[in-house]
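Bench notes, bay 3.
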Amino acid sequence: MKRTSRLTAAVLAGAVALSCTACGSSSASGTGSAAAGSKKIGVIQYTTVPSLDNCYKGFLKGLADEGFTEGKNLTIDFQNAQAETATADTQAQTMAAKKYDLLGAIATPAAMSAYAAAKQDNIPVVFTAVSDPVAAKLVQSLDKPGSLATGSSDQLPLEAQVKMIRAFLPKASKIGVLYTTSEPNSVSTLARLKEIAPKYNFEVVEQGVTNASEVASGAQALVAKGVDCFNNFTDNNVVNNLPSELQAADKAGIPVFGSEEEQVKNGCLASVSIDFVALGEETGKIAGKILKGEAKPEDTKVYVVQKGKPIYNTDVLSKLKLTLPADYQDAQKTTTKQ
């Protein structure tokens, strides 16, 4: 009897072991939430502007595409830095100390804070809405990041933008640019604009600012320099204080060309706009693959948006008594938000 009992127990133990092994194999090779397991991530959005809000919306969708849904197999600690770099630094340090599985960052300053805090703990960082990740020292190159950070770049279609400005303003000669000197994305984009503008017979007149309180006076300084229009970048400080820039432009009777659709809806004349929801979605997919162990940030190519679509504001066009160029008759149109 004892021998039979021992034999039966051995058989049962073997069956249980085989069963557990089979379960383990299924989980590892499966897709979606089964393979993903439960993860905890932190996300820092630098400030509240529509383009960055859209990035986060897309980011969640991209994560869901890869099998991660908040409240099911994903916990997200979302923080907004309210355009304060020191706040972003603190938020990132807190998240790193909690040993999250990944940090997401929306906009260049947030990405720089996240990377600085996370790299010593080997926590991957996935960023979006970063115009120049190389200049921000987040990656070594777009094709081969070589660091714990990767993500997506909202590199603006500047050539198409300048071509559009020329079409709307055939007699203009000076493009005014208001930018924040501490934002690497704006500094590198300004350099690109200076290379492109002469091909369309434009001079770029720049005015650097350091904080929100200088945006209004900076815009007035550009008007005093005789610019024919303003052209925005994805400069977090300037876009966050867009009403101040628009007020100066309106008083001078000159247009502001935005860097994306939401700025046009808020009073800019036109833009060759990229889709920030789609940009965020691609970023979420990258994050999902890293969380599943299917990709490593150092080897994951930075996704760069390839082109934008023209959009113009009919209210602003009418107010400035401008004519819609023939090449933009089929462009998307919008009106100013009330």
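Next record in the batch:
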Amino acid sequence: MFNYFQDLADRQLSGATLTSQDALAVLESTDAQLLDVVAAASRLRRAYFDNSVKVNYLVNLKSGLCPEDCTYCSQRLGSAAQILKYTWLKPEEALAQAASGIAAGASRVCLVASGKGPTDRDVERVAGMVDGLKDQHPDVEVCACLGILKDGQAERLKASGVDAYNHNLNTSEARYQDICSTHEFSDRVRTVEHAKSAGLSPCSGLIVGMGESNEDLVDAVFALRELDSDSIPVNFLMPFDGTPLEGTWLLTPAQCVRILALVRFACPAAEIRMAGGREMHLRSLQPLALNIANSLFLGDYLTSEGQPGQADLDMIADAGFTVLGQGAPPQSAGASMHDAGASPGAPVAPGALPAIRRRGAGTTVAPNA
């Protein structure tokens, strides 16, 4: 019996390029077809990544106080979100935070700082942190996310030991002016291309649930395909109170799965990460989504809390996957730090507000790792 999505997987495995018609068919598939979509996308995921899951760990080096006006961001200019705000972490604190994630199984550490882009002094500061991190953990990948880069900065980061650079496109070019007025879509594309030309692995993704149409989603994903992004984080809007998109709840768990499947069909060989907002939007479908995505962030995000780190690791193991680079499943150091009365990894209630991060970087409380 002919199965459209299995046929689509066959074509992608044979080297075909996903068309807009096929992309829309994935996004517009019915609930009755959802498991067919997952099964077909899973064939691509396993062809390139088998049953491994890459665990990434975020370290927020500088939080809040950003001069940009991105509507989705809790760190934006004029944000009233009650997030942690602090200037640059000291190198020793940044390394300690990174070490917590590495001990819990992270094979990539993502060093992130708010702002439009770094000064040369900022780049030197991060380069020093990377040098220390690589000295202690030589096999760990480092991804930097510092904003729009100037001439020479990508090359300096590469020379310091940075492996990858993240700068998300976030949405389609046609919609970009609706979510930000302080820089342009082309600035983001240029930074990713600059990073690539310096020998850094390009990491670029999107944020979904901001009111975009299916056609906008397809355009954004195809732009990422055109950039040949090695790693594609898919973020699901966290509508912080105090931002222009507060109260915006447009996604269902099933649609989030379809969006991940679209990215997998369009970019079969890319590392696809179910990133920020997965707990509140995928909810109980997170384990199912691991059949499509092969990567996630462990524990908390930049300004919000994720599910307990141990719950992430348990979810990976329970779904039949293994943490990349690990033998026996690692134990999260943060498992004992969580309220014993809470249900680890319990799905977030629909419409629940993002939990503001009050632990880890910039605090005296142990991180969720």
